[in-house]
Design goal:
about 500 residues; alpha+beta; Heat Shock Protein 90; five-stranded antiparallel β-sheet; five-stranded mixed β-sheet; binds adenosine-5'-triphosphate; binds magnesium ion
Length: about 500
């Protein structure tokens, strides 16, 4: 018995390992990767975009409101000077806002000047001290240090504004505190009449307050709408992209699968080519001695008749068995060195009838009913008669062997559907059928479940059909029967 040897890593071995590795590598999960990163990017973009849009809206509103307040305050300053300061000084000699009649007069001037305008309150600060001299909100009069940095700026003749706002998206929810937003604008209250070359003195600071709560609420609502719409658009975009990427991934996977299959096929055909060469040379070597054994046995049979009568059957057994061996050797050679088909116009029905005629008595002796449904109107095709005869014979013999208890063998021929003009041949039996796991292997050379079969029959049939540019299909159900369909195209 030969000792076990370790197999060295030849290029062929390494190819097998490569293929195994290739199969074990999980395909790049493009869709999964895209889903996560895409979702994060889209979410980020949506939030950034809605923030940008609403921020811009806020800025524009603020700029416009501030400009409005400045115009109102400017006009107010003018009105106060003309209608309150000048008449009061002329009448009382000086301004003393502590006096109720002066307060009342100023209040009337301010209310007249701001009537119908979007102004919530007006406050006038003293120029010497950060104290409220006058306000349309009476409770503020006399309070100190309310002005803040904007008051100081106004004293330096600079107008500025401050936005006091409170609330966000959540304040839109029912029951939540109201959103509030107030714009406080401060401008210097400048004496209009210029005395000498000196710049007119600052008499005080006017603070105008605008209530922007409704606008702020509107902007936050707008922010919600923008976010929702962007979210919907982005989700749609994401769904479309995801669909495209999923499709691309499927295509990539199919291509990879196809490549793997082709590689396997290549590998298989390399293996078969080597095997074929070996089989061909061995078969060739066997063929000649087999012929000699057979003819010698025939001569021996004749001689035995006279020398040892009654023993002729021994020679007959040798002749019969060498005949069977010869058949096997021929099959091996057919498979290993397939002949190039010699195409000539012929009728497929003629070939089928010849095959049927050849095995008719065999079928009868096995209690098999033959049903012929041959389409008589078929056009002749360019085919190799010899090769197709062998192919159909193989298929019909398989059918016969699949029905040891008898049954029905149907042979059908018809035109291929469409304009191709090809021919479809179907051979159906009611035999044992083929298990689904075996179905994919029946065309593999040397696959057989018969004691006396080589397993080359269907491999040769497939070679022949493919060399005619045709295809062979099989449908089978275990215990019910099998149908082989050969499609031969018009060439
Ligand atoms: N009509 C059929 N019904 C059931 N099984 C079938 C049929 N045709 C083929 N098979 C299965 O496919 C296998 C391969 O068939 P194939 O013709 O290639 O070889 P074989 O018939 O076993 O041997 P050989 O044809 O060389 O005598 C068979 O062994 C059988 O298991
Ligand atoms: Mg067979």
């Amino acid at each position: 018995m030969p000792a076990l040897r370790s197999v060295p890593m030849t290029p062929k071995n390494s190819k097998i390992t490569d293929m195994a590795n290739l199969r074990s590598v999980r395909p790049f999960r493009l869709v999964k990767f895209f889903s996560f990163t895409g979702l994060v990017v889209f979410l980020f973009c949506t939030l950034a975009l809605s923030w940008l849009i609403t921020n811009h809206a806020k800025r524009v509103l603020l700029e416009r409101s501030e400009a409005y307040s400045l115009v109102v305050a400017e006009n107010l300053g003018h009105q106060v000077f003309q209608q309150f300061v000048v008449p009061t000084v002329l009448r009382y000699g000086k301004i003393a806002l502590r006096k109720p009649e002066q307060q009342q007069a100023l209040d009337t001037v301010v209310r007249d000047a701001t009537h119908g305008m979007r102004i919530q309150s007006v406050t006038i600060y003293d120029s010497r001290k950060n104290i409220v001299s006058f306000s349309t909100e009476k409770e503020l009069i006399g309070r100190v240090d309310l002005g803040g940095i904007e008051y100081q700026r106004a004293l330096e003749r600079q107008s500025s504004s401050r936005l006091n706002s409170r609330g966000n998206v959540f304040n839109l929810l029912p029951g939540a505190p109201e959103i509030s937003s107030e714009l406080h604008t401060y401008i210097p209250f400048i004496q209009r009449k210029i005395i000498g070359n000196r710049p007119p003195p600052v008499m005080g600071v006017i603070e105008v307050v605008q209530d922007l709560s409704e606008d702020a609420k509107e902007i936050i609502r707008f922010q919600v709408y923008v976010s929702a719409i962007l979210m919907v658009i982005m989700s749609g975009l994401f769904a479309v992209l995801r669909f495209i990427v999923a499709k691309a991934e499927r295509i990539i996977e199919n291509r990879a699968e196809e490549r793997r299959r082709l590689e396997e096929q290549l590998h298989q055909s390399e293996k078969l080519a080597t095997l074929g060469k070996m089989v061909a040379s061995v078969s060739h070597e066997i063929k000649n001695p087999l012929g000699i054994v057979r003819s010698t046995a025939e001569i021996l049979g004749k001689r035995l008749k006279s020398v040892a009568p009654g023993n002729e059957h021994l020679a007959a057994i040798i002749v019969e068995e060498t005949g069977r061996l010869d058949g096997i050797v021929r099959e091996f050679l057919d498979f290993a060195r397939p002949q190039v088909p010699k195409f000539a116009l012929a009728s497929v029905n003629d070939i089928l009838e010849k095959v049927i005629h050849f095995i008719a008595s065999d079928l009868e002796s096995h209690r098999i009913t033959l049903v012929q449904e041959l389409d008589g109107a078929l056009d002749p095709l360019a085919i190799d008669r010899e090769q197709l005869y062998r192919a159909f014979l193989n298929i019909l013999l398989n059918g016969r062997q699949a029905m040891p208890e008898g049954g029905t063998l149907t042979v059908r021929s018809r035109r291929q559907e469409g304009l191709s003009g090809g021919v479809v041949v179907e051979v159906a039996d009611t035999g044992v059928g083929i298990a689904p796991d075996k179905l994919s292997r029946i065309f593999t050379p040397f696959y057989t479940d018969k004691n006396r079969g080589t397993g080359l029959g269907l491999a040769i049939v497939q070679n022949i059909v493919e060399s005619h540019g045709g295809t062979i299909e099989v449908e089978s159900e275990e215990g019910r029967g099998t149908l082989f369909r050969v499609i031969l195209p018009r060439r």
